[in-house]
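Pipeline run #58 for the internal structure catalog. This entry was flagged by the ingest filter as a single-chain record with no existing model, so it goes straight to prediction. Upstream metadata was stripped on purpose; only the residue string is passed forward. Reviewer on rotation: M.T. Logging verbosity set to normal.
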Amino acid sequence: MPTSGPTRGLVVKDIEADSIAAELGVEQGDTVLRINDAAIKDIIDYKFYSTEENLQLLLQKKDGRQWLLEIEKDFDESLGLDFHGDGLGKTMRCRNKCVFCFVDQMPVRMRPSLYVKDDDYRLSFAQGNFITLTNVSATELKRIAVMRLSPLYVSVHTVNPALRQKIMSHPGAGRIMEQLKFLAQAGIEIHTQAVLCPGLNDGAELERTIRELGSLWPAVRSLAVVPVGLTAHRSGLPHLRPYQPDEARAVVRQVQQWQKEFLARYDNPLVFASDEFYLTAAEPIPPAASYGDFPQTENGVGLVRLFKEQWRQARRKLPKAAARPVRATLVTGTLAGPLLRQVTDELNRIGQVQIGLQVLQNNFFGHNVTVAGLLTGRELINGLTGHELGEKVLFPSVMLRDGDEVFLDDITVAEISRCLQTPVLPVDGPADLVREMGL
C-alpha cells in the first residue's frame, strides 16, 4: 500500500538483536504507525499498546510500502525497538508567563537549550519534570488516567484560581484543583511544588494551598515549598524580592505545624520546606524521619539531611592520619558554605591533611542565587585563580550538566583544569569526597 509518507508514528532507530522485531525483518528507518488499530503518536502509546499478547502492527517502510505484522508474544514482552528522539517527538512548550520564571531571568548568549521552557506531561511521567497542567486538555487528562501515567510532578504554586491566573498569566491556570481531583480519582500519584514569593502566595495563601492539597491524600504524595529564585537579570519583569531570615522562619514554622497534623492524620508529613528555607532562616535541619521517603530531593528538599547522614557514615572510617600528605581545595556556593566548613574543619584534624574551602558568590546570576548548582565554570576560574589550591580542586557534581563534564556556561572541566593548572574533579557526596582525597 504505497503512500506519500506518514505524518505520525515512530521512526525506528535501533533493533535489538534476536528480538521479535529483528526476526520479523523490521529495519532502521521503518515507521510504526498503528498497533491493534490504535494510532501511535509517541513512545507512551507504543509502550501502552505493545504490552498485549496478540498484536497487529502496521509498519511503513522507507520506500512507502506498508506491512501489517501479526505478532503473538508473552504479555509485556518487548518487541526490541528503539526510536529516534526518545520516541516523544515535539516537546510541548510552556504557554505560561509566570512572574518568577527562572528561564526569563537567564542572561543572554547562553546555549539555546537553557532557554527552552517545556510543560509536557509525558516528560513529567518519564523524567520527573514539573508541569503546570495548563497545557493539558480534557482529552489528554483522560489519556493520563487510562494509560496510568503515574507519578506526575505538578507546579501548583497556589490553589486560589484568581491568584494562580495572575501568577502564571494564563486564563486556564485557575482549573488546577479540578484537574488534580480528576487525576486523584483516577488513581494517579502526584507530587506537587509551590514556588513562594514574599507577600504573594505565602502566609494565608500558603495555608490554603497546603490544606486543599492535603485533602487529596493519598493521591497527592508530597508538596515541596521552595523560595523564589531571583537572578540579576530581571529587566522588565515584575518586582519580586528574596526571603529574609524572619520570613523564611515563618514559612518553616508553618510547614512544621502542618507536618504534625499530617503525621497524625496520614502517618506521613506530606509537606516539606526546601533546604534553602532552613538555611536562610538559620534553623536546624530536621531529622531524617521528617522527610518521609525523601520524595523531592531533586527539588532541594532533604539534601542537606542526606549529606549530614552520609558524612556521619563516612567520617567513622576516617584515619587519624593520612598515609601521605593531602592538599586540596573544596569549592561550594554561599548557601552550603557553613555546612561544608564543618566538614573541612573535621578533615583538617586528620594528620597530614590540609583542605581549604572556597565559598564562591554567584556573580553570573547575581548574589541572590546562592546554590552551588548554579555556579558557572567561569566563576570557578575567576574565584580560584591566584589561590593556593593544593594538588586538586574538588567541587559538587551538581554544577555539571547531567551526564556531562560541562558547566552552565559551556566551559568544560578540562578547560578549568588547564586554566588553574590543577586537576579539577567533581565529587558526588561525602563518600566520594573522602575517596578522592585518598583517605
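catalog note: Residues 328 and 355 are 5 Å apart (CA to CA).
catalog note: The longest helix spans residues 245-266.
status: ready for reviewer M.T.
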